[in-house]
Amino acid sequence: MFAKTLIALCLAGSSAQALHAQAHATASRTGDLQIGGTFDLAKPDYTDLTFKGFGAYATFDFRYHWGIDAEFHQLDDPNSTQGVYERTYEIGPRYVRHYGRFSPYAKAMYGRGVFNFPPAASDPTGGAAANLAYNIFTGGGGVDYHLNRSINLRADYEYQIWRAFPPTGLSPQVFSFGAAYHFH
Question: Looking at per-residue confidence, does 1 or 172 come out higher?
Fold first, then answer.
């Protein structure tokens, strides 16, 4: 009787350890990746016009609440026949929370902004358009909505600061709406 009890306890103890090890291994992963595109609207602070354009983004969350966000925006002046646009490339950390299908987040980014504008009206030769790049800082946030296992919808807001833009800097606000493929 004692031998049967001892064997039963040994089997129970060893099987519980094996089950725990299997559950732990299947629950772990290295990160969470999504890649998507956006329709963008921007409100530059030097004109009353709204720039329109497109963008692309990728996020990689390496922890449950922490990740990295990389973005591109191409925003064109709708009334320009001379190719006035703002183009930005940004990357930075993001903090995300999860509430069912909604994942609101905040982000801080650093990058480069390219501003393309026509030659000065005082240039009698009609010269080339200026295409100047500036360092930019961005703060913002938004929400991802998990439509299904593979598709996320996004609404995003950014406040950009182009400090060296003459004469006193440039601070466009960018609103983005888009969708992404979520890799499992």
Answer: 172
